[in-house]
Amino acid sequence: NAFENVITYLVNKSDIDETISSIDVNLYQGNNLISSKKELNSAFNNLESNSSYKLELIYQYDLNDGNGEITATKTFETITSKAKPTVSIKPISITNSNIYFDLIVSDSDAACEIASISLYKDKTIVQRVIDLQTRDFQGLDSFTNYEIRVVYQYDLNDGNKIVINTYSYSFNTAKLSP
Hints:
Layout: E1 7-10, E2 20-29, E3 32-37, E4 41-44, E5 52-61, E6 70-79, E7 86-94, E8 98-106, E9 112-121, E10 124-128, E11 136-138, E12 145-155, E13 162-172
Antiparallel strand pairs: 1-4, 2-3, 2-5, 5-6, 7-8, 8-11, 9-10, 9-12, 12-13
C-alpha cells in the first residue's frame, strides 16, 4: 500500500518444505536503491509524496533436486499519493485598527489554490480580499475579536475530486490608547 510518504508491504510466504533460505525487499526510486529490508511485514518511511517507486522482492530457495540454490525476483510498481496541502496564517502586526499577516501555504505537490480570504466579526463577513495577494485588513474596530477565514481547494487526482477546506485564524485588535 502506498500513502503520502510511506509504502507498506506484506510478504505472504508459503514454504511447506522450508526451502526458502533468504528474502530481501528492496525499494528503488528510478534506478537508485533507497532501502532494503528482510522483514516480511514492514514499511518504508520518509518517502517523497507523488513519486514513483519500485518494490523488488528477491528470494532464494533450494528444492534439493540437484539444481542448487535458485534466486527469484518479483517487482511491483507503486506511486505515493500527493501530500495534502495546508494553509496557516502568521500574524506580522496587529494594531487597534489593522492586521498584517503572512499566508503560509504548505503545498509540495503544487495542488493548492486559494479560493478566498475573508474577515469575519461575530460570524458576519466584514471584508473580503479582492486581490488574493493582499495580506492585510484595515479599518477595524479596536479591542474587537475577528476571524480570518481562508478557503482553499485542491485535487490530489486520487479519485476524490476537488477537496475544499477552510482555515480559520482568530485574533483581537489592540485597545485604542487614550
